[in-house]
Amino acid sequence: MQGRTADAGAMDGVARPGLLNRRSFLVGSAFGVGALGLGGCATSDGLLLAEARNTYGPMPGEKFPIPAVDISKVDPKYYRRTVSYETKEAPGTIIVDPANYYVYRVEGDGAATRYGANVGRQGFLWSGDAYVGRKSEWATWTPPAEMIRRQPEAAKYARGMPGGLDNPLGARTLHLYQNGAYTLYTIYASSDAESIGSGITSGCVGLLSQDMIHLYARTPVKTKVVVLPA
């Protein structure tokens, strides 16, 4: 694995009074992203939009009910879909393509499920092979010491932030390992629609919550993960 130590799950979200802003964990005051909007990209395709509204609708049955995604803030090219994808990797393998902000799950027979993603920002990109060492639902998030040194406001969670909608790890997390050791990198569930298609994290990879739950259910422990060079 190449790159710097990740802030495990140091992902972003929407600021709320009295809560630590998850976006500040990632980029401090330097990052600001406007609504991407659909523009003229796919508004003529009513079927695509209807499908997206269904795919990214609310999930009230979750331990912490998940609201619908505001799909107007997601470029349609990042909607979940099945695509042609030639690879020598075995079915089930997860391939992260940070240069294009996609995560693929290899389905075999030249096809893959493709998800839009956010990825590491400059200085936190890495590449290499790993595997899913463990999985967690609504995980407790603990900021690494490196992050606390950079952003002292994170110290209030040094003993852990319980799972929930405001937790940076979100509803589901795949924890990435190499040679039996936790890398501190994760594939996690993001509630920030505007982050998809951006390089904003400290090396972790975020999918929309609905997409992450979809991938998580199909990913057993020991699944191979390939992170391509950016």
From TrEMBL:
Q: Name one GO biological process term.
A: peptidoglycan-protein cross-linking
Q: Does the keyword Cytoplasm apply?
A: no
Which pathway does UniProt place it in? Cell wall biogenesis; peptidoglycan biosynthesis
Q: Please report the stretch or stretches of sequence annotated as the L,D-TPase catalytic domain.
A: 92-228
Q: Name one GO molecular function term.
A: glycosyltransferase activity
Gene Ontology CC: one annotated term: extracellular region
| Gene3D superfamilies per UniProt | L,D-transpeptidase catalytic domain-like
* Keyword annotations from UniProtKB, A to Z: Cell shape, Cell wall biogenesis/degradation, Glycosyltransferase, Hydrolase, Peptidoglycan synthesis, Transferase
According to the UniProt entry, the coiled-coil residues are none
Taxonomy, superkingdom: Bacteria
Q: Name one Pfam family in it.
A: YkuD
> PANTHER family given for it?
L,D-TRANSPEPTIDASE, L,D-TRANSPEPTIDASE ERFK_SRFK-RELATED
The family classification in the record reads: Belongs to the YkuD family.
Descriptive protein name:
Tat (Twin-arginine translocation) pathway signal sequence
